[in-house]
Write a structure and sequence with these properties.
By secondary structure, the protein is of the alpha+beta class. The chain contains ten helices and eight strands. Helix content is 49%, strand content 14%. Strand 6 and strand 7 form a beta hairpin.
Length: 296
Amino acid sequence: MANCHELFIGFNEAIMLNESKKEVLRKSRDTLRDDIHSYLKEKQPDEILPKFNGQGSYMMHTIVNPIVDKDGNSEYDLDDGVYFIGEENDRKNVTTYHNWIYSAVEGRTKEQVDKNTCVRVIYADGHHIDLPIYFIIKGNCPELAHKSNGWIKSDPKEFYEWFNKKAKHNEQIRRIVRYFKAWCDKRNNDNNAVEMPSGMIMTVLAANNHSPNDRDDIAFKNTMQSIYNNLKSSFVCYRPTTPSNENLLEGFSDTRKDNILNRLDSFLFSANQSINSPNQKDACCKWQKHFGDRFS
């Protein structure tokens, strides 16, 4: 049997976001925080100044280097929550908060987009910062300012704490998540690709189905088998934190569901071939077929 564990470890090092890009994200984040405070102090001096809290893959240490597409572009990002904390009577409507944050960062970069769930600030080099906006009524769960759906209970801090607790004594879980995200990134960059699940969905699926092994190649294959079996039985993925009844796969079309299951099935076939192969070079080629040439 071909042992590709060390090749997986090398792949993990290749796909981890490097320190220079992390520093770029941190500098952009800190500059935008200053912009928001400066704007509100000047334009809304009687209002609550927000606090900030990072969220997403940056806080879970599972962020990966993006694949450079055929046009030479690559995207990597950081989510930075903007939290207004006060009494219920202090809270304005969703549109007001979106307008404040958009105005605060307007002109900072080449493009800003006011999305339903956040204000996105896009930089010329391809990275972007997402600024989701929350209001916390003291003692209650944060609520996200969603432009279409109003105020929605959502606690991203609870989510990354849930994941970090799972991975605290098992760094393999973080690597497994990165492998899945790199695979999805590769597939999303293929021509005529049907969109793969988001990084958040793959994080939940990988963490909940993690099958530990001393070898990352076997652990990844077994985790993928468990994910496939569960999705084949019932195509659902429930958020493990607030709102806990949310099915993150809800709304996926039958075509998209079939495509994802078929890709998992194809990858599992190659993974089993690879692990059972007597030749490491042949085994490596089978992994590379799905991960791309970043897998050595």
